[in-house]
Amino acid sequence: MDEAWLRIVVPAAIAGMFSIVTTLVTLKLSARAERRRLSHELKMRMDAWQREFASRYAELMSNNPKQDGALRQQFSGAYLYVKSKDGSNRCFIPEGIKMTIGNDETCDIVLDDMLLSRQHAIIEIVDGKAYVSDLGSTNGSYLDDKPIGRRAFLRDGAKLQFGEVEAVFRII
Predict the structure, then answer these.
(1) From first to last of its 172 residues, what are the pLDDT tens digits of the chain?
(2) pTM (predicted TM-score)
(3) For residue 91, which of 168, 148, 6, 7 has the smallest C-alpha distance?
(4) Which residues sit opposite 47 in a β-bridge?
(5) Helix (H) or strand (E) holding 104
């Protein structure tokens, strides 16, 4: 009688455990897919915002050439022009915000490169001066072909490299 009971209970228990594991894996995969969808949606919104910002800035500059200095203070920031094997991209970096760069979906600037760390570097603009910092990445960050220490000053037109991704920093 005990063997018959085991023949019924053990397969049922295994089937139940398999069902629980399958449910947990499905939930984890759907959470990952939802994070990717939200990340993509946020990137699309940021791209649209950047395009609108650039067009409004250009319109204001062309309509008010005498107020150039005041407008530059109001719309201060920079662009990071990223060149990777997947193509080119332009990312706006506003003053006063630390923009993280890496291959993790939580970064402000997500770059798809296996040589990048999850949180690879930070670019920030403080009081009109731009800085880049390496976050202790495995493969390092480079400014004009020189390794970046903890924090380095960024000039207009500076060439950056994160893994195999190259970028050019342009101040607005």
Answers:
(1) 456 555 565 566 666 666 666 666 666 667 677 777 777 776 777 777 766 766 666 666 556 555 555 544 455 678 888 987 767 788 888 888 889 999 998 888 888 888 999 999 999 988 888 999 999 999 999 999 999 988 999 999 999 999 889 999 998 7
(2) 0.58
(3) 168
(4) none
(5) none
